[in-house]
Amino acid sequence: MSVPYALLALLSEGPKYGLQLREEFEAGTGEVWPLNVGQVYKTLGRLERDGLAESDDAGQDGPQKRYRITADGRQALSAWLRTPPDLTSPPRDELVMKVLVAARVPGTDAHEVILAHRLYLLELMQQWTRLKEGEARDDLGLALVVDAELFRLDAVIRWLDAADVRLARAAAEPPKPGSAPVPAPQLRRLGARR
After folding, report:
1. Is 77 in the same domain as 101?
2. pTM for this one?
3. Which residue, of 125, 131, 132, 186, is most buried by count of CB atoms within 10 Å of its CB?
4. Which of 26, 66, 16, 73 is CA-nearest to residue 49?
5. Which residues, other chains included, contact 82 with Cβ-Cβ below 8 Å and sequence gap of 6+?
């Protein structure tokens, strides 16, 4: 979540105080992303410095200062909303790293590692599902957050299942005699020129 752009989005509704922005940010994200009030004021200071927001009174700091978005801020917000995030490289995912390491560590059963994480993820999905059936029913922001998290967890579980199958298949294949080890491919950004 890009806090500066989220604050600009809130300011696009009209002038607001820093504490008000913090409360609306948390309410708008289903209260799953707490925001420190110091972070709000630091971010507002940067938005002012960059000409994307302005305050009523430049000589006054703190909760008495009202902020509003500028024309440049509206343009920056609009551009950010329409610019896809960079997803061309796989993220540095700790779970992926654990499975890769488990597959290489002698005496470690990668299947057990995968099952432990799969069980944990299923428990998380159950918690999110209960939230979806309860509080998220009447809170659009929270409902969207819950849906996103459920889809993300489902994708991770499906990846674990696929990794488990792939590792089992690789373990069942006898090593080829006399063949040199194949070097691991170098991951690079998709779309990067060779």
Report:
1. no
2. 0.69
3. 131
4. 73
5. none
